[in-house]
Amino acid sequence: MSTTATPILSVENLTFSFSKERQILKQVSFSIPKGSFTLLVGPNGSGKSLLLRVLKGLLQPSAGTIVLEGVDVTGHPKQRMQAIGLVFQDADTQIVGQTVEKDIRFGMENLNLPKEVQNTRLEETLSLMDLHPMRNQRPRTLSGGEKRRLSVAGVLVMDPKLLILDEPFANLDYRSVVSVLSTLLHLQQEGHTIVLVSHEVDKTLAHADQVLVLEHGTLAEEGSPESVLPRLTEHGIYLPSNPIIEELSWLKR
Ligand SMILES: Nc1ncnc2c1ncn2[C@@H]1O[C@H](COP(=O)(O)OP(=O)(O)OP(=O)(O)O)[C@@H](O)[C@H]1O
Ligand SMILES: [Mg+2]
């Protein structure tokens, strides 16, 4: 990966607070190279989901800058909204359509994309997320794992510059974790840029290009999986055993 190319996203001294007394994000700085797979980890309440909402443009930072492909978009939440696809931690909140197919079409229809483009993208996404058999099913009758795949599909179909997933493995069984993670790695191979927030550090770490560790709203560590691994426990992130990085590379690229 070239480090000289303009990153998809870079963030400098990002700060966010709901009130004067309670700063949730404190001077967070990092950048996301184009085509990279970034893993964002941190204990419960460290500010991960909040950071994603600020990036996406759902909340405005109190200070700091957000730069998208070299352009300062801090004051332009709408541009961030369009460029960044965010799959929320609570998958259910994102599902709006009467059927799986209608739900995937929803965002494309809002953008008034030509019908042929919509149809092509719909079929591609149904295949990629393994949702063909359920295309006419009501979303609320889907299993937890299928709902999760639908929420990813609805975001993916919009072809965002940056795809961010907040805890996509919550409540998934082992096979579904493998399937979602494989799909993400496949998407990366196709050129997508991905940020993944996950507590399943043992499963995801070795597959990331870079790891960001958030603790109490501060970026505590940043680097390759190898360099970050030995310091995770210092920041309240525990792995089941004391693994070496090779043992964690369980999913072949
Ligand atoms: N609307 C709000 N008003 C006040 N405090 C909030 C609000 N939303 C979030 N917070 C607080 O901000 C902190 C960070 O929350 P956030 O959801 O970002 O944590 P997280 O790192 O995603 O945790 P988890 O791993 O549990 O998902 C928490 O202490 C939370 O209580
Ligand atoms: Mg969260």
Overview of this protein structure:
The chain has a single domain (9-248), classed as P-loop containing nucleotide triphosphate hydrolases (Rossmann fold, 3-Layer(aba) Sandwich). It has nine helices and ten strands. It has helices at residues 48-56, 77-83, 100-110, 115-128, 144-156, 174-189, 201-204, 225-228, 245-248; strands spanning 9-19, 22-32, 37-41, 63-68, 71-72, 84-87, 162-166, 193-197, 210-215, 218-223. The strands form two sheets. It has a six-stranded mixed beta sheet with strand order 6-7-8-3-9-10, sandwiched between helices. A four-stranded antiparallel beta sheet has the order 2-1-4-5, with helices on one face. A hairpin with a 2-residue loop joins strand 1 (9-19) and strand 2. The longest helix is centred in the C-terminal third of the chain and has 16 residues, at 174-189. It is globular, with a radius of gyration of 18 Å. The structure holds adenosine-5'-triphosphate (ATP) and magnesium ion. The site of adenosine-5'-triphosphate has 11 residues, from helix 1.
